[in-house]
């Protein structure tokens, strides 16, 4: 049996995924959570074979969850199921060791097959997205990404500095670097463009 934990912040989608996978004779859904921090706790408690996660969730995003799993070398495979057909997200997911990346509008039977393939050590990636993912590199480093995300969510330089234990001058430098790399004129445009590309 493939033991699966589901992490999805939309309750209806979580229920639908669970119901769908429970129809499969070789898949056992051992739990379902609605945010990233709960997923992290349940991963350690339940020790599933595969985590199926969305990207945008409260607490930790699916990408941050995958990065944490990779850092702690947990023996769990990760499959992302998302609405975001953004090459930047896929690149970051692959860098974090994700085994599967599927879009929510893919045929339902693709999910069970993807879980089996990833569980066996293979990869299950949306083919069109895979082609696009390598056409444009993400210019931001992790710190620029963190600072830009917080700025785009309305945090001031002072707020960001306190949250990330940086000086305000360092925060302004990171924002300035991100704006320059993205070729825009201000932090709002930088945030919009980076989100659109899947770099945040």
Secondary structure layout plus pairing:
Elements lengths: L1 E6 L3 H12 L4 E7 L2 H11 L3 E4 L8 H10 L5 E6 L4 H9 L4 E4 L5 H11 L4 E2 L1 H7 L8 H11 L4 H8 L3 H15 L4 H11 L3
Parallel strand pairs: 1-2, 1-3, 3-4, 4-5, 5-6
Helix pairs in contact: 2-3, 4-6, 7-9, 7-10, 8-9, 9-10
Pfam families: GerE (PF00196), Response_reg (PF00072)
Protein name: LuxR family two-component response regulator
InterPro entries: CheY-like_superfamily, Sig_transdc_resp-reg_C-effctor, Sig_transdc_resp-reg_receiver, Tscrpt_reg_LuxR_C, WalR-like
Describe the model.
Helices cover 52% and strands 14% of the residues. The chain has two domains: 2-133, Rossmann fold (3-Layer(aba) Sandwich); 142-197, Arc Repressor Mutant, subunit A, CATH 1.10.10. Strands 2-1-3-4-5-6 form a six-stranded parallel beta sheet, sandwiched between helices. It is of the alpha/beta class and 200 residues long. Keywords: DNA-binding, Phosphoprotein. Residues 3-119 form the Response regulatory domain.
Given as residue ranges, the uncertain stretches (5+ residues, pLDDT < 50) are none
Lateral strand order in the biggest sheet: 2-1-3-4-5-6
Order of helices and strands: EHEHEHEHEHEHHHHH
Cα-atom Rg, whole angstroms?
18 Å
Shape: globular
Give the N-terminus to C-terminus distance in angstroms: 35 Å
Q: What is the count of helical runs?
A: 10
Structural class estimated from helices and strands:
alpha/beta
Number of structural domains: 2
Class of the largest domain, according to the CATH hierarchy? Alpha Beta
In the CATH classification, which architecture of the largest domain applies? Answer: 3-Layer(aba) Sandwich
Share of helical residues: 40-55%
**Relative strand content:** 5-15%
Number of strands: 6
**The CATH H-level homologous superfamily of the largest domain:** Response regulator
């Amino acid at each position: 049996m493939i033991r699966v934990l589901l992490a999805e912040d939309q309750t209806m989608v979580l229920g639908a995924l669970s119901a769908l996978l429970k129809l499969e004779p070789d898949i056992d859904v051992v739990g379902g959570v609605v945010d990233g921090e709960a997923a992290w706790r349940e991963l350690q408690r339940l020790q599933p074979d595969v985590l199926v996660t969305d990207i945008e969730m409260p607490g930790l995003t699916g990408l941050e969850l995958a990065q944490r799993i990779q850092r702690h070398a947990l023996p769990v495979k990760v499959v992302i199921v998302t609405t975001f057909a953004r090459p930047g997200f896929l690149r970051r997911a692959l860098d974090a060791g994700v085994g599967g990346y599927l879009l929510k509008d893919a045929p339902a039977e693709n999910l069970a097959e993807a879980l089996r393939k990833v569980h066996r050590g293979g990869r299950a990636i949306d083919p069109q997205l895979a082609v696009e993912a390598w056409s444009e590199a993400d210019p931001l480093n992790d710190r620029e990404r963190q600072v830009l995300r917080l700025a785009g969510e309305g945090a001031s330089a002072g707020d960001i500095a306190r949250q990330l234990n940086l000086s305000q001058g360092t925060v302004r430098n990171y924002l300035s670097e991100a704006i320059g790399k993205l070729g825009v004129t201000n932090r709002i445009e930088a945030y919009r463009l980076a989100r659109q590309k899947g770099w945040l």
